[in-house]
């Protein structure tokens, strides 16, 4: 018996994702989210067409104040391995999805992981 891998669709990725980890590169540090201090974040993906999407990152501090509220226009495509990715107009990787977890790279010097 042969099993077929289901091709992901927009509905698999569209909607609200909860930030689970923030990794900073310089100086190196990794923080689980929501943090012990009460910081938390979300990443919302919305599609305007088959390939055009907007990724909106919102990060809140321990006082529940909105610290970051940025939107990133992106093109939805796949990488050389067939994994779903979102890229900026200049081809820069904004986010990659593996096993329904997203790694967001829109902020320089950081990787932000999120799950649905």
Topology:
Layout: H1 10-13, E1 15-25, E2 28-32, E3 40-47, E4 52-60, E5 66-78, E6 84-87, E7 93-98, E8 101-104, E9 110-115
Antiparallel strand pairs: 1-2, 1-3, 1-9, 3-4, 4-5, 5-6, 6-7, 7-8, 8-9
Termini gap: 31 Å
- What's the CATH first level? Mainly Beta
Number of helices: 1
Strand order of the largest sheet: 1-3-4-5-6-7-8-9
**Beta fraction:** over 45%
- By CATH, the topology is Lipocalin
Sheet with the most strands? 8 strands, antiparallel, barrel
Mean pLDDT: 92
CATH hierarchy: architecture: Beta Barrel
Low-confidence segments: none
Radius of gyration: 15 Å
How many strands?
A: 9
**Percentage of helical residues?**
under 10%
Overall morphology: globular
Order of helices and strands: HEEEEEEEEE
- Count of the separate structural domains: 1
Structural class: mainly beta
Care to describe what's here?
With 116 residues, this protein is mostly beta strands. It has one domain: Lipocalin. It has one helix spanning 10-13; strands at residues 15-25, 28-32, 40-47, 52-60, 66-78, 84-87, 93-98, 101-104, 110-115. It has an eight-stranded antiparallel barrel. A hairpin with a 5-residue loop joins strand 8 (101-104) and strand 9. This is Lipocalin-like domain-containing protein. It comes from Pedobacter yulinensis.
């Amino acid at each position: 018996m042969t099993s077929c891998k289901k091709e992901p669709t927009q509905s698999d990725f569209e909607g609200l994702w909860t930030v689970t980890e923030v990794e900073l590169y310089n100086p190196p540090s990794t923080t689980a989210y929501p943090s012990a201090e009460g910081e938390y974040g979300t990443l919302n993906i919305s599609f305007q067409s088959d390939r055009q999407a907007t990724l909106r990152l919102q990060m809140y501090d321990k006082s529940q104040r909105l610290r970051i509220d940025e939107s990133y226009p992106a093109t939805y495509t796949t990488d050389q391995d067939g994994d779903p990715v979102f890229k900026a107009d200049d081809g820069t990787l904004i986010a990659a999805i593996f096993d329904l977890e997203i790694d967001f790279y829109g902020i320089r010097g950081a990787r932000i992981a999120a799950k649905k």
